[in-house]
Specification:
Shape: globular
Largest sheet: 6 strands, mixed
Low-confidence stretches: none
Oligomer: single chain
Strand order of the largest sheet: 1-5-4-2-3-6
CATH topology of the largest domain: Alpha-D-Glucose-1,6-Bisphosphate, Chain A, domain 3
Number of strands: 20
Number of helices: 18
Length: 558
């Protein structure tokens, strides 16, 4: 049996015996469990990173639970009080998704804010993450919180923090918040307001329905008149927050949409999927079957907090799944085409450093500027804020390979509501010309070159996993250009490149401009490897891709 450190044992004993922790927590920890499980629950405090918290739900310091939520919120509250003083009375907005305990965690966060004297606007129903971003801006708040673990498996939950611009907090502010969070050592002593008293005093208010209505109207402002709504569409919200806004927007615009009935109900157990991630074909399988049955044109699915959307298109050769990079390129091409008259020398497309170059090439060939940011939509949102404040750019579209897109300036985060609307619009626009989105994708490849992109994720949990991820990154850095033939440059973002913040990312760029990027995930115990290969055709690109994957797999599996 694994021996536990004194520190882990002391923390474990405190949590399972101190009566300031509720009975449910103590009962969970007093059940028989192995030393390995005790260690996993208590070997660290769940890390409040640059985007907030994300972890498995349960009792313990390395779990998502109401006590960890209270600690994070108290730290955030102290940060806001110090930064804004009296202006903190502008308040904080809080939203949540369909995951188990999301509503409870959101309420806990709201009552900690109220106990700190900060007015709080809490949604009384679940909303997408981009809606929360919109709400912070619409209500003029000093910050925001959304409780979600995005597309993670059902056992996870998370907590994201937003600034006054509706953007996830950037590195400098996140580090300041982390200091406040880490300064809190007596978790059960954190003050929590009484909900009835907080409402009676006006500190706690529900967000009015008019704000949600305004969000939906802002999304619809990005629509274009494409004539007949000819495409037949199947949609699944995967038991999440997209059900109401996506269906509402598409219905109000007159689209022919059939929903996957079994996946409409909000359910944090996500009973019909292994994981509610529209990046995975399995998550869309029920929708694909319905699409085939109805002979619909496409299926689209949004994740639980409706900031990502995945699609599959019906063709004569069967259903064709699209990658995030492909949808991003389609949207760049389409949005430029439909907004040609309003574009200027300031018009800009923003993408991340691990996103395919195809969308950037399309933008540049059409005279638009392209800006690259680090991974994470908050960096795209930050550029949008810079455009607003300095007038040095006009935002056209921002996107990342992980199925996240934003058109319009209503939010500062990826928005699957507006993306779903535009994907359906594209499908109709091209169907009216006798084309599918697959046909259009092939036309883009013929015009701009063939791109093949692939993401491999390796899950490495616990203390050992952290050490292995660090060892892998170290070995990759040491190999440098010798990793494989024809590497022209190695970009190590830990030293800061192109005025971007420092980040633990390696990018190997080949002589033909193909590349491999490697980074630890910021939200999961994973290391991610991104491949982007350019070739004359798919077969040629596939051979190159597989040879490069073999090299990386050998290193990681060793």
């Amino acid at each position: 049996m694994k021996e536990l450190s004194k520190e882990i044992l002391n923390t474990y004993e405190l949590w399972r015996t101190d009566e300031r922790f509720d009975k449910e927590t103590r009962d969970e920890l007093n059940k028989p469990m192995s030393n390995e499980e005790i260690e996993d629950r208590f070997w660290r405090d769940l890390e409040f990173g640059t985007g907030g918290l994300r972890g498995v739900m349960g009792a313990g310091t390395n779990r998502m639970n109401k006590y960890i939520i209270r600690k994070a919120t108290k730290g955030f509250a102290n940060y806001l009080l110090n930064k804004y003083g009296e202006d903190v009375k502008r308040g904080v907005a809080i939203g949540y998704d369909s995951r188990n305990n999301s509503d409870t965690f959101a309420r806990e966060a709201a009552l900690v804010m109220c106990a700190s004297g900060i007015p709080t606007y809490l949604y009384s129903y679940l909303v997408p993450t981009p809606t929360l971003s919109y709400t912070v801006r619409a209500l003029g708040c000093v910050g925001g919180i959304v409780v979600t673990a995005s597309h993670n498996p059902r056992e996870y939950n998370g907590y994201k923090v937003y600034d006054a611009d509706g953007c996830q907090v950037l590195i400098e502010d996140a580090n300041a918040i982390i200091e406040y969070v880490n300064a809190i050592t007596d978790i059960p002593a954190i003050e929590v307001a009484n909900e009835d008293e907080a409402r009676a005093s006006g500190l706690l208010k529900s967000v009015e329905d008019s704000v949600f209505d305004s969000f939906c109207e802002s999304v619809k402002k990005q629509a274009h008149d494409v004539g007949e709504k000819s495409a037949k569409i199947v949609y699944t919200p995967l038991h999440g927050t997209g059900n109401v806004p996506v269906r509402r927007v598409l219905s109000e615009l007159g689209y022919n949409v059939t929903v996957v009935d079994e996946q409409v109900e909000k359910n944090g157990d996500f009973p019909t999927v292994v994981s509610p991630n529209p990046e995975n074909a399995e998550a869309l399988s029920m929708g694909i079957k319905l699409c085939e049955k109805l002979n619909a044109d496409l299926i689209l699915g949004t994740d639980p907090d409706c900031d990502r959307v995945g699609i599959a298109v019906n063709t004569k050769d069967g259903m064709k799944l699209f990658t995030g990079n492909q949808v991003g390129a389609l949207l760049v091409d389409y949005v430029i085409k439909m907004n040609k008259a309003s574009l200027s020398e300031k018009s800009t497309v923003i993408k991340t450093i691990v996103t395919s170059e195809l969308g950037a090439i399309i933008a540049k060939r059409n005279g638009l500027r392209v800006i690259e940011t680090l991974t994470g939509f908050k960096f795209i949102g930050d550029k949008m804020n810079e455009f607003d404040k300095k007038g040095n750019g006009e935002f056209v579209i921002g996107y990342e390979e992980s199925y996240g897109y934003l058109v319009g300036t209503h939010a500062r985060d990826k928005d699957a509501v507006v993306a779903s609307m535009l994907i359906c619009e594209m499908a109709c626009y091209y169907k009216n010309q006798g084309k599918t989105l697959v046909d259009v994708m092939e036309e883009i490849y013929a015009k701009y070159g063939y791109f093949l992109d692939k993401l491999d994720s390796y899950t490495l949990k616990g203390i050992d996993g952290v050490e292995k991820i660090q060892a892998i990154m170290k070995e990759m850095r040491e190999k440098g250009k010798a990793l494989m033939p024809n590497i022209a440059t190695v970009n190590d973002y830990t030293v800061g490149i192109d005025d971007l913040p420092k980040a633990d990312v390696l990018k190997f760029v080949f002589e033909d401009s193909s590349w491999i990027a490697i980074r630890p995930s910021g939200t999961e115990p994973k290391i991610k490897v991104y491949y982007s290969v350019m070739g004359e055709n798919k077969d040629e690109a596939q051979k190159v891709l597989e040879s490069r994957r073999a090299v990386i797999n050998e290193i990681i599996n060793a």
